[in-house]
Q: What sequence folds into this?
């Protein structure tokens, strides 16, 4: 401590709880836990959250870490719908048509949500309503993201036919848009209607590491994932600051997480529990990943929460 | 880095925290098996979750048993159900 004061000009603060509004390099002694702590540059990590109210995979998922929503799902064609407030899952009114989807799919918020797999349903914060307009191309395992009134949906398959179709939603109807460059199903997407990334998936012959960027008009290939995978990755963020996690690739349920900076993908900290068919959304700094199929082929209720703060707290030890 | 092995039931929130994930390696596996980085943070976490210590061989046997059960269940599914799943495959714990 004498050395610290000599170097820094002040002693290490002795506080009963960790300070708020941390600055990188800040050091303090937490008298409650009896630990010396410091604020360092933030590194993303997944922490455990509370389980969903049931065991599910292949769900529709959208929203944020503290206002998230999952609906439908396997192993049956579930009608369940539930919200997450960052602490607990709460069952809300069911969707009208039970179904599951093997890709990242779902748009909007817990007060204005949207799911789509041929039929479209909209959530108003209380209940789900069938929207009369069907998609132009009936298929499963398609991905999509955006808002309840402005969504882009892409990819998917119908049996052995893997598709390049893209459709946009204006709140009332689906319109065909320019095709993907690479046919894929079971991929995931992030971003908004006018600026999205479609990533990973299965081509019909192999797991894909491809990523394509949508500029509102057309798709352009961008840097590949480090680890190709398919089947409902958790996702979050934007085309300039994105996040994907989990999936299935190389014969394994993956925990791999990657972040996208608009140019390239970077490996980040893994999920604690590797799995595919998980649902989730959020931002690149705060997202949720819920449910999925684990390495013993069981669906799970497990939730994990992603945090990548600018600054993080570490405990300093001498051992 | 060597790892330690234990079984523990994931109770949800704060079973493992962001800070703990930054302090030591942690991965969860079938049978509530956890592989934990071998440092004092990992040791503290095992204490926190009342983990039951296992040898690597014991932990691997639990995981193998869960995967074998999953394989049996998968093989009994209809072709339609199998198409929605991937047959589980044994793997070595890190």
A:
């Amino acid at each position: 401590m004498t050395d610290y004061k000599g170097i820094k000009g002040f002693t290490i603060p002795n506080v009963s709880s960790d300070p708020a509004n941390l600055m990188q390099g800040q050091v303090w002694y937490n008298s409650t836990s009896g630990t010396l702590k410091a604020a360092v540059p933030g590194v993303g990590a997944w922490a455990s959250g509370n389980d969903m109210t049931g065991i599910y995979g292949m769900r529709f998922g959208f929203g944020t870490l503290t206002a998230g929503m999952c609906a439908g799902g396997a192993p049956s064609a579930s009608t369940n719908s539930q919200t997450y407030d960052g602490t607990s899952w709460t069952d809300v009114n069911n969707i009208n048509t039970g179904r599951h989807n093997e890709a990242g799919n779902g748009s909007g918020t817990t007060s204005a949500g949207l799911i789509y797999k041929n039929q479209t349903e909209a959530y108003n914060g209380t209940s789900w309503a069938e929207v009369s307009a069907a998609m132009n191309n009936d298929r499963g395992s398609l991905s999509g993201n955006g808002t309840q009134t402005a969504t882009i949906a892409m990819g998917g398959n119908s049996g052995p036919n893997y598709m390049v179709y893209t459709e946009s939603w204006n709140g009332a109807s689906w319109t065909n848009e320019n095709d993907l460059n690479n046919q894929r199903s079971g991929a995931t997407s992030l971003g908004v209607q006018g600026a999205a990334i479609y990533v990973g998936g299965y081509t019909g012959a192999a797991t894909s590491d491809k990523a394509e960027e949508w500029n509102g008009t057309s798709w352009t290939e961008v840097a590949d994932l480090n680890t190709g995978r398919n089947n409902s990755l958790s996702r979050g963020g934007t085309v300039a600051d994105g996040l994907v996690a989990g999936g299935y690739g190389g014969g394994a349920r993956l925990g791999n997480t990657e972040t996208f900076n608009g140019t390239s993908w970077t490996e980040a900290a893994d999920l604690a529990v590797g799995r595919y068919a998980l649902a989730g959304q959020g931002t690149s700094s705060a997202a949720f990943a819920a449910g999925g199929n684990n390495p013993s082929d069981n669906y799970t209720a497990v939730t994990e929460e992603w945090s990548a703060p600018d600054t993080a707290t570490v405990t300093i030890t001498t051992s | 880095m060597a790892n330690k092995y234990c079984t523990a039931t994931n109770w949800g929130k704060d079973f493992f925290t962001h800070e703990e994930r930054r302090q030591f390696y942690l991965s969860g596996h079938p049978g509530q098996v956890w592989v934990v980085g071998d440092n004092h943070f990992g040791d503290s976490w095992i204490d926190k979750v009342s983990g039951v210590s296992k040898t690597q061989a014991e932990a691997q046997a639990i995981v193998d048993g869960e995967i074998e059960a999953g394989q049996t269940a998968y093989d009994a599914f209809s072709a339609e159900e199998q198409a929605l799943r991937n047959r589980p495959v044994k793997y070595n714990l890190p």
User: Anything to note?
Assistant: The mean pLDDT of chain B is 96. The first strand of chain B starts at residue 3 and ends at 7. The longest helix of chain B spans residues 56-76. Chain B has one domain: 3-82.
